[in-house]
Amino acid sequence: MTISPLPLEFDFSLRQHNTFGIDAKAHAYLPVTSVETLHALRSDVQTAALPRLVLGGGSNLVLTQDFPGLVLHMRSRGREIIGEDDDAIYVRAAAGENWHGLVQWTLEQGLGGLENLSLIPGSVGASPIQNIGAYGVELQERFHALTAIDMESGEILALDRAACAFAYRDSIFKHGLRDRAVVLDVTFALPKRWQPNLRYADVAQELDARKLSQPGARDISDAVIAIRTRKLPDPAAIGNAGSFFKNPLVSEQQRNALLEQYPQLVNYAQPDGSYKLAAGWLIDQCGWKGKNLGAAGVYEKQALVLVNRGAATGQDVVRLAQAVQADVMGKFGVALEPEPIFV
Ligand SMILES: Cc1cc2nc3c(=O)[nH]c(=O)nc-3n(C[C@H](O)[C@H](O)[C@H](O)COP(=O)(O)OP(=O)(O)OC[C@H]3O[C@@H](n4cnc5c(N)ncnc54)[C@H](O)[C@@H]3O)c2cc1C
């Protein structure tokens, strides 16, 4: 048998590496600190036939079983200001950097733009995968470009915003480049003429309560951190993957029909004429808030979050998700699509 020159570990527990805290194992595990490791991997005979999973912070994953392949854990580090023009200052960060750490670092440099996205768990490299968003801002609004390696051809790809095909919790990495591209670093364009983004009522209210009528980027970050800490379970204490379902989009006709039956329906008009419904409200109306199924449950403070009540397996989470989806479909005729990736 050929021994791989790569520092592989086998039968590796992923429990500490997924925020649901699911106790699943990877057949093989490789920490990745540089692109050279990925180039070497492409010619490694021992691992060539194994399925691969790129792992960041494991905060958007449900491990439904032991992973029979190779986990590539992105651990690269580095963040720097790389340039500026009339409109923006450009900051590049390595895929393995912690997202919230990057946000805080940009604020320390006096750069605003990412503050509404404070405290989202996970890595920089995963941020474009689902075009992370929170409190009125989506990643794509601050994204400039990224580099990735195409693991099939070995080519280094330079992708701008258009090439990433961002949409709500979506990008090309979930479609054409799925299971192919490993993001190496991401460059952000942080606006020189910074304006506070207070589109989200919660943030405006929190700032009012703090008597901040002219908030700076740091104030907004602090407000977002306070709101998130109140509303969302800390994965270190209660395993979870944040919002478990996307907010579903429905036609105007379906929204009107639902409104007639449910005048309290929480819905938001979209630029394309469709309506976004609040998935958490739909789940709450089905009576799931605070309920458990096996060792998995629906968080008592926010029905959109599924949680690990202790020793939940990935299958417990899948069963609960399916039960919630079936009830929402039965009551409202609306399909809920999970946000995390099932592995
Ligand atoms: C408490 C909590 C709150 C959250 N709040 C939000 C929120 O407000 N908004 C939001 O959008 N999300 C939220 N999330 C979800 C999650 O934090 C984000 O999706 C985050 O970007 C995932 O990063 P990660 O490094 O943990 O990715 P992982 O879970 O490790 O991976 C997610 C996916 O990205 C792929 N991937 C990871 N890194 C790379 C890479 N370098 N190259 C290619 N593919 C890669 C993986 O293969 C996988 O398919 C929340 C999660 C939790 C637990």
Give a summary of the structure in a few sentences.
This protein has 343 residues and is of the alpha+beta class. It has eight helices and 20 strands.
The termini sit apart by 29 Å
| CATH architecture title of the largest domain | 2-Layer Sandwich
* Helical segment count: 8
Shape: globular
What level of helicity do the residues show? 10-25%
Mean pLDDT: 95
CATH class categorisation of the largest domain: Alpha Beta
Percentage of β-strand residues: 25-35%
Total domain count: 3
Residue stretches low in confidence (pLDDT < 50, at least 5 long) are none
Taking all Cα atoms into account, the compactness measure Rg is: 21 Å
Order of helices and strands: EEHEEEEEHEEEEHEHHEEHEEHEEEHE
The beta-strand count equals: 20
Structural class: alpha+beta
- Largest sheet geometry: 5 strands, antiparallel
At the third CATH level, what is the topology name of the largest domain?
Uridine Diphospho-n-acetylenolpyruvylglucosamine Reductase, domain 3
